[in-house]
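[job 4471] stage=fold_predict status=RUNNING
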Amino acid sequence: MFLVVFEVIVREAFMDQYLELAAGLKETLLSSGGLLSSERFQSLADQRKLLSLSVWDSLESIDRWRQQMDHRLTQKTCRDNYFESYRITVASALRSYTEQDRRQAPEDSNQYFFEKEIP
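[job 4471] inference complete, writing structure tokens
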């Protein structure tokens, strides 16, 4: 599992235009293959700051998305016009677990919180 964290500060007058362009890419994103989930969050302290978190099945899937022509054209438009700054971080997941599936949880956490054997 691989994560892409996209942090952006959108120029004040261009938030609506940026969100419209991003929405236009949604179909291409979903059909690119390998996307497991995607969410966008807005800062409470600065409404111009957004964070998009996408989870992918492979680095190849991320590369395929990165190289999509519609995506590239949107990137150029946004970099040239809408973004004050941005940062992209690509990372691999070290572990992933939930309250119900704790197989990858640290053993000491499982021992601390649960007396019974973890499924």
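[job 4471] summary: DSSP finds five helices and four strands in the chain.
[job 4471] exit 0
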